Amino acid sequence: MTMDSFWGIEWVEDVHEASAILTLFLVGFHIAGVIVSSLLCTVKIWYVQ
Question: For residue 6, what are the contacts with CB-CB under 8 A and spacing of at least 6?
Protein backbone atom coordinates (compact mmCIF):
# COMPACT_ATOMS: atom_id res chain seq x y z
CA MET A 1 0.00 0.00 0.00
CA THR A 2 1.41 3.38 -0.97
CA MET A 3 0.43 6.89 -0.02
CA ASP A 4 -1.26 7.31 -3.42
CA SER A 5 -4.16 5.27 -2.10
CA PHE A 6 -5.04 8.21 0.20
CA TRP A 7 -4.82 10.88 -2.53
CA GLY A 8 -7.90 13.09 -2.55
CA ILE A 9 -9.56 11.64 0.56
CA GLU A 10 -10.96 14.55 2.54
CA TRP A 11 -10.44 13.26 6.07
CA VAL A 12 -6.76 12.54 5.38
CA GLU A 13 -6.29 16.11 4.19
CA ASP A 14 -8.12 17.39 7.28
CA VAL A 15 -5.95 15.35 9.63
CA HIS A 16 -2.81 16.53 7.84
CA GLU A 17 -3.88 20.18 8.04
CA ALA A 18 -4.85 19.91 11.71
CA SER A 19 -1.56 18.25 12.64
CA ALA A 20 0.41 20.92 10.75
CA ILE A 21 -1.46 23.72 12.53
CA LEU A 22 -1.01 21.99 15.89
CA THR A 23 2.72 21.60 15.25
CA LEU A 24 3.10 25.30 14.41
CA PHE A 25 1.15 26.26 17.54
CA LEU A 26 3.28 24.01 19.74
CA VAL A 27 6.52 25.37 18.27
CA GLY A 28 5.37 28.94 18.92
CA PHE A 29 4.23 28.03 22.42
CA HIS A 30 7.59 26.37 23.12
CA ILE A 31 9.58 29.38 21.89
CA ALA A 32 7.43 31.75 23.96
CA GLY A 33 7.94 29.55 27.03
CA VAL A 34 11.70 29.51 26.56
CA ILE A 35 11.78 33.30 26.28
CA VAL A 36 9.58 33.82 29.34
CA SER A 37 11.56 31.28 31.36
CA SER A 38 14.82 32.89 30.31
CA LEU A 39 13.61 36.34 31.33
CA LEU A 40 12.25 35.18 34.68
CA CYS A 41 15.38 33.21 35.58
CA THR A 42 17.74 35.86 34.15
CA VAL A 43 19.47 33.23 32.03
CA LYS A 44 20.38 34.38 28.54
CA ILE A 45 20.23 31.11 26.66
CA TRP A 46 20.71 32.80 23.29
CA TYR A 47 23.97 34.52 24.28
CA VAL A 48 27.03 33.06 22.60
CA GLN A 49 30.57 34.13 23.43
Answer: 12
CA angle 7, 10, 11 (to 5 degrees): 105
Q: Which pLDDT tens digit goes with each residue over 27-44?
A: 999 999 988 888 888 766
48 three-state secondary structure: coil
38 burial (CB, 10 Å; 0-12 / 13-18 / 19+) is: middle
Per-residue pLDDT reduced to its tens digit, 11-29: 999 999 999 999 999 999 9
**For the whole prediction, is pTM greater than 0.70?**
no
